[in-house]
Predict the structure of Intermembrane phospholipid transport system permease protein MlaE.
Amino acid sequence: MLDLITSPLRRLGHVTINAVWRLGFASRFLLAILANSGQSLLRLQLTIREIYFAGVMSLIIILVSGLFVGMVLGLQGYTTLAKFGSADALGAMVALALLRELGPVLAALLFASRAGSAMTAEIGLMKTTEQLDAMSVMAVDPIARVIAPRFWAGVISMPILAALFNVVGVFGGYLVGVVMIGLDAGTFWSQMQGNVDLHYDVINGLIKSLAFGVAVTLIAVFEGYDATPTAAGVSAATTRTVVTSALVILALDFVLTAFMF
């Protein structure tokens, strides 16, 4: 009987202690990245190459998704606004929904799924094949050579990808509202310009995307570096990256929205 009570408590304690330990390890890991960032930024070609793999290679999924999200917003927004005689406000509704919420959040989720998982798998594979250990033997710091360039590439790429998502999304809303439905183009753009504030909407959206970029990239490189050096371990680390990133993005979005808006 006593065992039935203590066994769940032991499991709960083990999970809690492990979570706290990993959180502390991740914090120390972030400090190590920041401490070694100078070396990676001096060799700018490393960071530029990782920006290409993390950012440029994610462009297709970001642009296509942004276009269709904007088109869906245009359709749904027009249907709802027309009931209240406010169809002319479609441009403002599409722009505000994208800039404040959908753009940064959806772009971050797509970035985590595509670039974040790729970073984790690549670093985990390097750990499995002992490439990171070989660098340490040759007096090359793997954090400065491998981790920091990928971290900064993700941090730089994420706001740019979110901005492109927003631009293409607004264009998708324009295609539906003006080209397909027949709203006046001047009204569409003037409503958008009159209701979108540079600091309140655009800058706050970019701050959100920057915070998401830091969180997602840190999770990706940490999970890859901490992965068990087996095929199953790398697979599990990649899964944790996507799942944890999605949860952190949504939680961060709530916190940032509460403070910003």
